[in-house]
Amino acid sequence: MNGSRLPTAEFEAEDVARSPDVDVAGSSGIDDADTLHILSEQGELGSTLTARVGGEVVDFSPYVRADDTEHLRSLYRDMYLIRRFDQESTALQRQGQLALWVPLTGQEGAQIGSGRALQPQDYAFPTYREHGVALTRGVEPADLLRLFRGVTNGGWDPREHNFHLYTLVLAAQCLHAVGYAMGLQRDQLAEPSLPPAASIAYFGDGASSEGDVHESMVFAASFKAPVVFFCQNNQWAISVPSTVQTRVPLAQRAAGYGFPGIRVDGNDVVAVEAVTRWALEHARSGRGPVLIEAYTYRMSAHTTADDPTKYRLSEDERQWRTRDPLLRLETHLRSTGQADDAFFEGLDAQARTMTTGLREAVLSMPVPDLEDRFASVYAEPHPLVQEELAFFREYQAGFADDGQVS
Amino acid sequence: MTLKTFDLPDVGEGLTEAEIVEWRVAPGQAVAVNDIICEIETAKSLVELSSPYEGTVSELLVVAGETIEVGTPIISVDDARESPGGSAGSGGSQQESSGGSAGSGGSQQQSPGGSAGTTGSSSAALADAIDTPVPAPDMPGEVAGPLVGSGPKADSVKRRPRKSSATAGPGTPSAGTSSRTTPADQRTTPGSPSDTSSTPAGQHTTPVSPSDTSSTPAGQHTTRASPSDSSSTPIPADQRTPRPGGTGGRVLAKPPVRKAARDLGIDLADVPASGSAGDVTKQDLLGYRDRLGGGRGSVPQSVSPSVTPSIASPGTDRGISAGDRIERIPVKGVRKATAEAMVRSAFTAPHASIFVDVDASRTMEFVRRLKASRDYEGIRVSPLLIVARAVIWAAARNPAVNATWGDDEILVKHFLNLGIAAATPRGLMVPNIKDAQDLSLKELALALNELATTARDGRTQPAQMQGGTLTVTNIGALGLDTGTPIINPGEVAIVAFGTIKQKPWVVGGEVVPRWITTLGGSFDHRVVDGELSARFIADVASILEEPALLLD
């Protein structure tokens, strides 16, 4: 047998895969003129926020709430608290109290900005990283950890907060969000007195490659569904850089579906909030979906089970630290005299109380009885489930130990 | 006051063990919740572990450099307060109460709480506190531990012990150790009864608290054969280097490459890796295979496991390792058929071989003319065509060479299925041209073309190889002058002809360059005597010397 008879495709494909064309036109990122921002990396607040969207110039200035000190301080407080929550959760995972943790550090601006733009009647569909959005929707931080401690499949009642359960299947929530938005449309027809509402689908640059995103955008455009697609482009789909996911800025993809796409500096919480408020209003008023690409950076690992130092440069991480969403708002608040040391110290105390309570709550989370699972299959007793429950009890009784993990 | 132990957590998804790389605290030192206590290395990364407790470090239960299983207690912390009475594991929640009772030593030295980098309350400090793992220094493909799910221990299953009729009942923790592990051993290693009871708890040299003995039962190492291996003595770090004689499990390579290596019988550990991640690529493998000289013949299959494992280990001199010097190729397929046929022929038919040098210059001239002829346009013409035609012609004049020995009778055929020996991708094949005696020269040329193309493509069908009556082998195609061919079983003669090349030849007393070949053959002496074989070969030779005789 000679060499030509052996398949050779693998290494050829390998060579191709290892030389992705990273010179992607128009995706030079944060420095891109098309990336909207109003709060500079130096903490200076610009005066205008306009962009050309779908052929017309949109002025986002009416949606900017930068002259309200209390509002800016509350944006900072939310970002700060959720970062402290994130750090405590990471520590809890490292101490064996959580099976896994999905850090959000670096994406606070995108999450708090967009979350705070939502109105109570709007409905958010998160991935598994939207801890900041959860905070803005009033979800108890400890409840977010119940899933990661493995004591529940959910953690909160989505209907209480209009914040859906975390979706672990990549991009599936985009379909849910569009379906929900189409439902909102029909509710509105049946009962015009309802307040106009929109849904918002969170997803990442990695999920943007999923077919679900395509399908949901097609349907959203076709039916002019009141939905905002909020893509946090945090540069990394675990270990795959976003330059491999797309040849054009993700926001440009919206043009292909026929609705507006806007790229915003995801680390500029003020700009994110303004753009999202505009987009939600656009959706609620019947003008159809909007895609927002929040250009940001995952400063930590994808999850606690991965090690980003193995696939990205520490120089990149260092550069992005200068764009920290908290840092620039803190600089702005301090330099304009809107906040002083007392404010930040107060936040620290608040965070300590929060993380202490969080740890206490996690450690005291009741371990559910496995038998409860059988009760949630059917609404009413079912002979097959009863049979399986009996088998399960017999099986459990056969162990010599009590099965408790120390 | 309460002594609290911290068990090694699974910091990744499904990790089963980790190595303590470095301790950052020492006994007697005060720690606060979330203070970094040590650095561990898992199969995935280096990770800093933080303390879940506040208090004074009482004891480090594992020394740095040790690889331990998830769930093993690694540190005990004296929380320096009255026993909370119940609610185990909630000690961390009272981190703010920094008041220490008497005798708690330096436990209040640290600032209360002590969440890293937060007292400054600035974003910058916050960003610095981001938990980013330290880069792992390991080189891919060398001594790195197994990736998750790929290593021998990554998927080891801990089985909860089942009640047996004799030892039912929970028992005390210490008594429970033996009763828990024994049934598991009996189930998982039926062939080694010595495992079941000869592993005292004392072999668990890892410091353990009584409540934890069940997490490191001796019986879980179901893949280890010897009793001494089955104790849960902490595995020294050097065991993470590639094990000698492994099937390349620690060598990085993609699954298709592994498959190909397995098919080729090559141990990936022997193949120099050039992949960007230190992995063995398909090109590396094929290059290695070619250097081994394994590029021809049938597909070598996997190396027998009986090859001594130690000599295949990386680091030994590859040039002299037996794994390279002796390759074991199972005999099957064409190889097996050829071997059987050759043995049957060589040891049943007494072979007599004869040779003669022939001036084939006119044959070469004839071939040249045929090639130029419009009639033969698109047909490959070679000296083999003339030899084949000559053999058919000579066999007609000497019918006894076209026969079969039948013990008590000789079957002389009045047809000639002319076999042509061919080296093919599948090995030696001898397809034959049926009723070659009826073919014109051009038809014979077409038949030879068809036969050669089919054989080269490896598409020769069994039917094409059956029923042969006389064979020609063109050893000249292999660059040889002559050789003693072995008769195809069932036949009594085989004609071999060597290279045709210019040699000095005496013609009319002058030495002139002529196209010379050596014609020869082997004959079954039971049927063909020397005289007959000589006449037959002479007839073939005469055609090569003067193809015009074919017009006869």
TrEMBL record, chain B:
GO annotations of cellular component type: cytoplasm
**Protein's UniProt keywords contain Electron transport:** no
Per UniProt, the keywords (alphabetical) are: Acyltransferase, Lipoyl, Transferase
Q: Where is this region: Disordered?
A: 77-257, 292-322
Listed Pfam families: 2-oxoacid_dh (PF00198), Biotin_lipoyl (PF00364), E3_binding (PF02817)
Q: Locate the Lipoyl-binding domain: which residues?
A: 3-78
EC numbers for this chain: 2.3.1.-
Q: Which Gene3D superfamilies match?
A: 2.40.50.100, Chloramphenicol acetyltransferase-like domain (3.30.559.10), E3-binding domain (4.10.320.10)
Q: Does the keyword Acyltransferase apply?
A: yes
Cofactors needed by this protein, per the record, are: (R)-lipoate
Q: Name one GO molecular function term.
A: lipoic acid binding
Q: Which organism is it from?
A: Arthrobacter echini
From start to end residue, where is composition biased (Polar residues)? 174-187, 218-234
Residue ranges annotated as compositionally biased, kind Low complexity, are 107-125, 188-217, 298-310
Name the family the entry cites. Belongs to the 2-oxoacid dehydrogenase family.
Tell me where on the tree of life, at the top rank, the source sits. Answer: Bacteria
Instruction: Please give the CDD domains that the UniProt record associates with this protein.
Output: lipoyl_domain (cd06849)
What are the Peripheral subunit-binding (PSBD) domain coordinates in residue numbering? 252-289
Stretches of the chain forming a coiled coil according to its record: none
* Name by which UniProt lists this protein: Dihydrolipoamide acetyltransferase component of pyruvate dehydrogenase complex
